[in-house]
Amino acid sequence: MAKAADDEKRPKRLIDRWRRFKQNGSLETLIRIVATDGRAHMRGYALATVLLVVVGMTTAASAWIMRDVVNHIFVSRDPMMLWILSAAVIGIFVVKGLASWAQAIVLGRVGNRIVAETQRRFYDSFLRFGLDFFTERASSELINTVVRGAGAIRSVLDTVIMSLARDLVSLISLVAVMLWQAPLMSLAAFTVAPIAIFFVTGLIKRMRKIAQSEYGASTMIVALVQETVYGNKVVKAFGLDHHMRGRMAETIAAVEQRQNKMASLQARTSPLMETLGGVSIAAVIFYAGWNTINFGTSPGEFMSFVTALLLAYEPAKRLARVQIGLEMSLVGARAMYEILDKPPSGTERDDEPALDFSAGRIELRDVDFAYRKGEPVLKGVSFVVERGERIALVGPSGGGKSTIIALIQRFYDATAGAVLVDGQDVRKVAVSSLRRHIASVSQDVFLFSGTVRDNIRLGRLSATDEEVEEAARDAYAFDFIANLPKGFDTDIGENGVQLSGGQRQRLAIARAILKDAPILLLDEATSALDSESERNIQLALDRLVEGRTSVVIAHRLSTILNADRIVVIDRGEVVDIGTHAELLRRGGLYAMLYRYQFSEEKPLVAAQ
Ligand code: ADP
């Protein structure tokens, strides 16, 4: 209790504010940004700094010159000085204008470069992650981070440079002018600073909390848009428009409310600083005016002082708020670093020696596997797939068939036992060399944005147009592609919405044919297709399997009838292995599955 009360206590001193900034990792993140991206673009930032210092100094010069303007022009009435000083004022402002213009260009360019580099680095880094990373994280989180995190790094650096080079230099030089022109009045004016710091400190802690939750809520918006796009069929079919609208409205309202809160916290510094500024300026006017009226002090110093004070007020205000702005950006930067710092997944290591591929014999040796600790999915799975053999995996859903397919491709690592290809442990070879020898076709075919041709070519990027078309022909996809509005050049959009399930599958088969890998892993579609599609797919698959070592999760009668051997998987264990006839003879799970799952189907292609 005592500790909670302590935590709640507002940090009252500058030192507390600093300590908190350090504690929650903000300082660490800030230092890191400056030391990495800042240092990498040191030349640009150095140039911007020089230009900003010029801006700061010219601001001070414009205050400085006020003394001579008043004393020489208004008090001494010197006509010569009228010309000289007017020209000097023009000069000062022209220099300031040019420096501001140049620094905006320099900072803009460097900032854009940093955003581009960070986005590239971020994307590269998440390509090095394995499947476990992508199942753990919502894509909306990654999207929001790549969009906002990169901008956040840029704005942190902008804020640091602007505050140090422009605002701090302006403030220090203006304070110097004030001290030089009227030391006593300066001391009186500076008493305002601690009061301002005291008020601003309290706002910062609240700001940090709100910025964090605003970031989370904005990720939700991305997630909802994504779900609505991907799940639009479900949304329409179940009439969920209203429900989705409600969820979105709630999330948007939450972001809006938090952003309003942030805006109001940020704005709260304004009336505070205005009032404090007004009071100190009035006090100075009163004191200096009193001296001039009653004791005839020359007004030049006073004018110079007041100008400096007025000009100091803006940079001082910005500096008082700088930490609030930084906190907002650091939330995004931290989210980005969290991902950049994650070590690449073990399954994606590519620095091992390449697979020495000869026959393409696959062996699972006593494989145990669990996605989560304590929840075994595979237990002591062992079987061998000889060169050129067709193996069908059969078993109740959830038994672990897809997991076996994933382990052969090293999407995950076995927790015990080993997966071997040609006698080599898949964990001991470069993953790219392993996957190069494997083609896989899964149930849910993902089509990328681009044309039909582009999508097939993903099987082998170096394939010529003729080879792509040949693969399409072998996959029994040529005719339907030729009938599309622009044939192979038809754009299918990121989800290939205009294609039927059967057509999408044939595109995936064409991809696999084009890859021409000696090992084939296949998850047959369970979804019912019209008999024309079914027949074409069957023919395409037969062509694909021909001459390759294949492991197929079987959902079709013809597949099990054509398989050399069938591996029956139940609850993570191999319960039987044999040919269709052997297994049927033995009775057991296979015979039962066959009766319920397969026997009602008519084989489309006669069993051998
Ligand atoms: P099958 O292909 O035989 O239907 P799976 O290999 O897909 O079986 O699934 C086996 C078990 O592993 C199931 O209990 C399933 O819930 C679980 N599982 C599958 N994928 C994941 C995953 N990415 N994370 C956690 N559990 C998973």
Plain-language structure description:
The chain has 608 residues and is an alpha/beta fold. It is built from 22 helices and 10 strands. It folds into 2 domains: 24-345, ABC transporter transmembrane region fold; 349-432 and 552-608, Rossmann fold (3-Layer(aba) Sandwich). It is 66% helix and 10% strand. A 6-stranded mixed β-sheet has the order 6-7-8-3-9-10, with helices on both faces. Residues 1-11 and 602-608 have low confidence and may be disordered. Adenosine-5'-diphosphate binds at residues 135, 371, 377, 395, 397-403. Residues 46-328 form the ABC transmembrane type-1 domain.
Task: Describe the structure in brief.
The protein has 608 residues and is of the alpha/beta class. The chain folds into 2 domains: 24-345, ABC transporter type 1, transmembrane domain (ABC transporter transmembrane region fold, Up-down Bundle); 349-432 and 552-608, 3-Layer(aba) Sandwich (Rossmann fold). 66% of the residues lie in helices and 10% in strands.
What are the main properties of this structure?
single chain, 608 residues, alpha/beta, ABC transporter transmembrane region fold, 2 domains, six-stranded mixed β-sheet, four-stranded antiparallel β-sheet, 10 strands, 66% helix, elongated, disordered C terminus, binds adenosine-5'-diphosphate
